[in-house]
Specification:
The protein is mostly helical. It has 3 helices and 2 strands. The structure holds zinc ion (ZN). Pfam families: ComFB.
């Protein structure tokens, strides 16, 4: 067992849902740049979890932080689009 940052999954999933509306590049480099940008600006949420528990925890976190994550993803996409590193 090791601690796991739930926000990694929450942010990655949200990016996948939103990427078409963000209008940014979809290459791996740009996607990870966007994920890092967001993860560096929100508090991590570490858990030690068993399989099966993960999804109910994800839902709770999702609801709590959704607005922040959406705002940050939009900012990140804009910034990375202007200055892509790929
Ligand atoms: Zn790219």
């Amino acid at each position: 067992m090791k601690p796991y940052n739930l926000m990694e999954t929450v942010v990655t999933q949200k990016l996948d849902q939103m990427i078409d509306t963000l209008g940014c590049c979809k290459c791996e480099q740009c996607r990870w740049d966007i994920v890092c940008y967001v993860l560096n600006r929100i508090p991590p949420k570490y858990v030690i979890t068993h399989e099966g528990e993960l999804f109910s925890k994800l839902d709770t976190v999702n609801v709590q932080y959704e607005m922040d994550i959406v705002t940050l993803l939009t900012q990140a996409a804009r910034m990375i689009q202007k200055n892509p590193r790929h």
